[in-house]
Design goal:
Layout: H1 2-9, H2 13-25, H3 42-59, H4 63-75, H5 86-110, H6 116-134, H7 139-169, H8 174-188, E1 198-201, E2 204-207, H9 210-213, H10 217-225, H11 227-243
Antiparallel strand pairs: 1-2
Helix pairs in contact: 1-3, 3-11, 5-6, 8-11
């Protein structure tokens, strides 16, 4: 039965699996390469779309789909930012200042006579900055050490919030993520005026109603698919949504 409806669509099982996965985990429905879809007889389209939805339902429950979902979820996991300790902050500032001094010393040695005074002034400023960086009483370090506990708390709270949002968007139960995508389909295919009037200009069809012409590509794709495909698909998808807890 699987082979039968896939043949009617003109795609292989491997291609179907890839398209289903890409449609749920990617940016949207991938219809490219489904070469026979337009040629399916009107009376058969409902059966084909319901077969496809049943196949899709089984695929998104498979171990292969779950593995790809978890990989995608992990790729979006927030990265935790760790605040430097006062000691590390001071050491980093000193290291940067020393590196800048070393670079300026090398520049002065290589500089053309006409520009040497300019670089010597920059070197003097760099050495002054290094001296300030090495000063244990530097006010910048004192302020940082004072604010460090609050900085750690702020970073931790920010990370925890990001993780909570990440878990909300990519739940451990991957079917809850699938449910969101299914609801997107329901939202994008509601209130379609299948009897909308079309006009032809330069060999291309346009909606007479300009509001319809401004609709998104998915709405227009559903319009082209037709009532005999979209309505049974919406009924099946709504039932599927209600089954996912």
């Amino acid at each position: 039965m699987v082979d039968d409806f896939l043949k009617q669509l003109g795609i292989s099982k491997t291609s179907a699996d890839e398209k289903i996965t890409g449609s749920f985990l990617g940016r949207g429905f991938d219809a490219y390469g489904i070469k026979n879809a337009k040629n399916i007889a009107l009376g058969n389209r409902k059966a084909v779309v319901l077969d496809l939805l049943n196949y899709t339902k089984k695929h998104v429950s498979s171990a292969a789909f779950l593995k790809q979902y978890m990989a995608m979820k992990e790729s979006y996991k927030p990265k935790e930012t760790i605040a430097l300790t006062p000691e590390a902050d001071k050491a980093e500032n000193i290291a940067r200042a020393k590196e800048f001094v070393a670079n300026m010393e090398a520049t002065v040695k290589k500089a053309d006579a006409n520009f040497k005074p300019i670089f010597e002034k920059s070197l003097a400023d760099a050495k002054k900055n290094l001296k300030e960086a090495e000063d244990p009483n530097n006010k910048q370090y004192i302020r940082y050490a004072k604010n460090y506990p609050e900085l750690v708390k702020t970073f931790k709270e920010g990370y925890e919030y990001q993780v909570a949002q990440w878990e909300k968007k990519y739940p451990t139960n991957h079917l809850l993520y699938v449910k969101v995508r299914l609801q997107e389909f329901m939202n994008e295919t509601k209130d379609i005026g299948f009897g909308a009037e079309l006009t032809t200009k330069n060999g291309k069809k346009y909606f007479v109603n300009h509001d319809y012409e401004r609709k998104g590509n998915r709405w227009k794709m559903a319009f082209r698919a037709g009532k005999e495909v979209v309505e049974p698909a919406r009924e099946a998808v709504q039932k599927w949504i209600e089954e996912i807890k």
